[in-house]
Structure formats: C-alpha cells, structure tokens
Amino acid sequence: MPLQERSRMILIHGGTILTVTDGVIEGGSVLLGDDGKIAEVFANHTDVPGAIVVDATGKYVVPGLVDAHTHLGICDLEVGEIGEDENEMTNPSTPACRSLDAVYVWDSGFADALAGGVTTVFTGPGSGNVIGGQSITMKTAGHCIDEMVMQNPAGLKTASGENPKRVYKTKTQLPSTRMGTAKVLREALSKARDYKERRAGTEPPVTDLDMEVLCKVLGREIPLRMHSHRADDMITMVRIRDEFNIRMVIEHGTDSARVCHELAQAGVAVITGPLLDVSPKVETASSSFKTPHLLHEAGVLTAIMTDHPVIPIESLRLEAAIAAYEGGAGEQEALEFITINPAKILGLEDRIGSIAKGKDADIVVWSGHPFKASSVAEKTFVNGKLAWEVNA
Amino acid sequence: MIRIAAQHLFDGHGIMNDAIITVDGPRVVSVETSSHPGECCDYSAAWVTPGLIDLDSGIGLKEESLGFEGNDLNEMTDAVTPEMQAMDGLSPYDTSLAKSLMGGVTTALVMPGSSNVVGGRGAVVHMVGATANDMCIKAPFGMKFSLGNNPKQTHGEKRMPMTRMGNAFLIRDILTKAREYREKKKEYNMKYEALLPLLAREDVAFIQALRADDIMTAVRVAEEFGLRYVITGAFDADRVADQLKEKDVTVAFGPIIMSRNIDEARRLHPRNAVVLLDSGTRTAIIAGHPNYPAKYLRISLGLLVGRGVSPVQALGSVTRVPAGILGLDGYGEIRPGSVADLALFKAQPWEPEGVTEHTFVGGTEVYGRS
User: Fold this and answer.
1) With CB atoms counted within 10 Å of each terminal CB, which end of chain A scores lower, N or C?
2) Taking CB atoms and an 8 Å limit, are B350 and A376 in contact across chains?
3) Best to test chain B binding among A85, A374, A390, A391 (most B CBs inside 10 Å)
4) CB-based contact A338:A304 (threshold 8 Å)
5) B367 touches A: beta carbon within 8 Å
6) Which fold has domain A1-63+353-392?
7) Does domain A65-352 have CATH number 3.40.630.40?
8) pLDDT tens by residue, A87-108
9) Closest-CA residue in chain B for A318?
C-alpha cells in the first residue's frame, strides 16, 4: 500500500476542503508532509512532484474529529466486565490512578473511531468516584499507547451529582450526599495544598502519589475535568475551583443552558453530551441538542462528546449534525464543536482541530458532507499516514 | 379538510414528486400530483412520509429520566411471564412519547423487555393520548420472548435459566403445557390462557435474538410449535441471511446505532442490516427504544442509504413493512382511505438535515416545529 509508506508526501487534491478555521476551499489541495504535518494547503489544484496523489474530486476533506470526553479503550467493547477499567470504586478519591495504565489499544473502538473520522480522543476514568484519576489525550491510530499518547496527564477526572453518591451510599460510606461529594474534593485539595507547602520546605514529606497529582492541579498544570449534569452542581464546583484558584472544564453540562451566562462569566468551557441517547436518569432530564448552541451564544467555549461507549464513537458527527440542523447551531458552528473547540479545551489548538499548514496531518476524506448520515469516511489519515480505508 | 403539498411523497411503496394529499377527518381521501404544489395548501414540505412505526419498543414502559420509579419493563420475579400485558405498565406521560412525535414516529409496538424468557404481551399504540386506552390501537398483541444472555444474567443465580439450553427449554416447556391445556382444560391457568392465541396462530411471537445461534434457536423452536413469529434485534442476522431467506423469516433489525458494550452487540454494524435487506428477507428497521431514541429512527436509515440501500426500501422498512407485521390495514402507507398518520420533513428524512416539521396522528396535528 503506497499510501502507508512513511517516507512519501501525500497530496489530496480536488473536493471541498472544510478547513474549519479558514473557510471552505472548493477544489483545493492539501499536502501531507513526510514529517506527519500538513506541509501546505493550496487554494487550487497544484502538482507536487514525488507526492502520492489522492483524488478527492466530489468528496469532502475535513480535519480529523476530536472527541474530548470518552472512555475509549478503558471500557473495552468486547469482553464485558473483565475489560472494564473505568472506576476504581474502592475509594472515592483515587487521583493517582492513570488511564494510561488501562487503555487497551486493540479494542475495536479504535477502528470504529477511525471509521467515523475521529483521530484524537480524550479518554479517562468514569464518574463513580469523586476523584477518579488521570485522563490522557491520544491519537486513535497505532499499536502502542506510549506512541499514541499526546498528553499524560491531560486532566484529573472528578465527578459531582448522582453517580459518586449512589456508588458510596450502597457501601454506607461517605459521600452519600452532594455535601459529602464537595467535602471529599475540598479535603483532597486542602491536604494537597498543605503537602505542596511542606514539599517546598526543609523537611519534605514522604512522596504521596495522590498528592503529587493534586499538586499539578494546584499548579494549574492540568484542569479538573468535572462530570456535572445539574446546574447547581456546576455552580458548586466552580465555587470550589475559585477557592483553590485551579482550572476546570465541565463535562456533560446537561442542564448548563440554565446557567450559561454564569459559566461564560466564570470562563468555564463545557463539553456537552452524550446527546444521541434517551435520558437515563433524573439529572439528565433536560438533555437537548439545543444546549451546545445556547452555550456558544452565551460565550462559553463548547464541544460535543460521545462519552463512548455510551454513544458509539463513530456517531460523533451525527450528534454534531443534529445540533447543527435541529439545535440551531448551523453547520460551521457545529463542526467547530467536534474539531477546533475541543482542541482549544485540550490546549492542542496548535496541533489539531483544523486544516492549516504546520498542524498534524490528521485528515479525513468523506464521500459527502460529514453531516450527512449517508456519507462515509473513505480514508482517514493520522500523522500523515493512512490509518483507515473503507472496504480495505 | 387539510391539504398538504409534498415535493417528494413516499406513499409506502414508491416516491412521487409534486403531490397533494387531502385529509378529511382521520383519513386520507386523495393523493394527486399537481403542477402547482403548494397553492391553496395548508401545509407544504420537501418530504412527506407515513408516520414511522417502531417495533419492540419499551417506550412508556421504561420512562425517560427516571430510575426504578419509571421502570416497568421487566417483571423479573419469574423468568416466564406470558400473562403480563404492556398496556398495564404503559405511561402516557413518558417524555419520550412527545419526542418521538418530533421525529415523525407515530406508532409503536410496545413490548415487555428482554429479561424474561417469556416476557408478556405487547400493545400497538399511537405515541399520543391522555391515557393508555386513548393511545391504544390494538392490545394485547404480540408475545415477547427473549433468548441469549439477558434472561441468563437476570435469573441464572436464582432460578432457571442459567444457560441457553435453559432458555430454549423454558419456551418449549410452557408451550407444550399450554398446548395440552388447550386440549384438556382443567383448572384455569392464566399463563397458559395468555399463550392460546399464539398457539392458534392468531397472535405473533416477537423473539428477541441477537447472536446468530440464538436466531436459529428461535427459528427452530417457533417451527416446532408452528408459530407465527418475528425475530427482533437480530444483530448477527447477516451470518444466517441465507437460512432466514430460505425459511421466509420476518426480521425486525435494530437498533442500528447502539453502544456495543455488551458481548452480543459486538458485531452490530449497519452493513449487517444491508446484507439482510439485500437478501430479500422481509425486514423492518427498529429503534429499540430506549436503547436508541425512537425520535432519531429516521437518521439510522441514512447509514443504510449510504451503503447502497434505496430510499424506497429504507423508508419502507419503518412504515409499510412494520405495518404489515402488525397487521394494521391503512397504516404505513398514504392512499385514499389510509389513516392520516403523516410526517412532514424539511429535507430527505434519512439525513440529519431532514428535520421533522409537522406530525399528524389520525388527521390531527400533534407536533409543529416552531
């Protein structure tokens, strides 16, 4: 397969290029360099001697999609309970647990991601614990996690609302209320603040892996990735964020439209979803495809997630499509919800989320507009290499 | 009288351009082509189809956004409960009902869930009504059976079934006893009574089977008792497409989009449905609500159209075909005399862009997009 050769440049020409950040180019060309980066974006058909040519005439050329909240590879699709490594529910606070140690890269979900045009994911622990553990950002193509990973840790998974209190109530253990959940988080951060001070002093404490991670949070190196459905939970968690002057991203944000102006004021980004499901519990009752657009209108940096495996990862584009046509976002804004916006939330907007010179060559050639259900991803390139081909 | 102009009308059988549908009371009275569609019409839409029909749905039985309080899907205190009736658990206040209308879905066969080997009898309902009785088109209708992991997992630690052998045995056992009961009735037995219409071929078995081996077990057991039956779920049907075609089996395939986080859904893929449809097997496509929201049944069809299924066949699989399976005359098609259950779309209904603009049930507008 010449397209899989590492050392050759690839020229994708023709087609409609949705750059995301620099408009739509009809009949242009994208040159994928042999260094895995986008070497050039041409406004018209250009010949590049030596490059392998991929004819995309009549097709759509789109940046690889970014799903900023998944459990890909951590909650394996194929083996049931023995493959589920999402929640270390033996303790409500487990910051030292690392997704990197739980991702099974041969899980079929990775092939599904590539077939659905998703080339970058944030994958992390579940919401059973108040502090679940460290998440990572990774590319979806490859065989070795250490080569696929982009950020480790990318954030610290935390959870508010129904899930942690339900888990620990059955164990008759704290937290069994929202107050208890806030206490677990506040206590962990307070202890870490103390640990951090002593670590800097003359008699440093014995190394505590949990505390080391929380120090990264206190040092604003990584954000808390806060699972939160109800508006009151979001406000509580922003309060705690400000008490400790840390960074936070709201995950799910089901009821966030209610407090969209407060969230905008607080400068909190929200990753909405999953949306293509039947609301499973009380705190998700206001789930709506209109939420992402309402947040965006209010000035909140907004993305859409699948929460894979809750919604199969290849359906990310369908969620965005429904948000575009039914939720009021329109095509450009909705495309941003699954490309450049999650890239910005991850702090990776210089590498992924749009088609521009110098960015990672993560490009998908679609048979039609990716918001058409009948379109299929025909070729998915990751770091300039063909990682997926339909019917291949 | 209501007049509806359609740029494209799918009438259950084919696609007609520039059509005008006239509705009088609860029925369609005429379908004509017009060179000036839209003139003198009360509504106009890019696409009009019959109201969509979802089979083997849990809508109203497992209510959206609720836990235990709104979950009446499975009477799991026994693995064999043919005497249960979906009508008795159906809530007209499930918020998913109104959402389904917003997706052009007007009718469902609501059935007990798949935790029991024999779940109980279903109800064919409209998605709108102040009470379950108002919603009801016909009930009880259909007997739910379930094979595979679900009954094993639900009951295995307490009682039979613990294995697939146990699943099949329990079905054979109850049907054998019901047959004997029919012949020499002694004491009243509610379970056997519920199965008599099925044995008399007046009722239809809806057997949920996801894996190919479970599908063939369903076929084997149903044939032994001469049942009328439909296989539901059928994720692995592509593996036994030839056998299903040869035996003239009816399949309700779906949902097409669902978490594959259970072993039996591992191979679920739109192409499996394409294989089944291409083989000529009578196939309905279902949402399997609440595993996938009925509201977006239409979008799951786009995944089939993108893999070569014709729009006529895709739309037929959620209208004419399920209406035929339910034996509902005048549903699933638009012709003079048919029930005026109609869905009006902004663009091709199988694409996300084809947002539902108006939905009619029995000639009454039950949803209008503001």
Assistant:
1) N
2) no
3) A374
4) yes
5) no
6) Urease, subunit C; domain 1 (2.30.40)
7) no
8) 888 899 999 999 999 899 999 9
9) B352
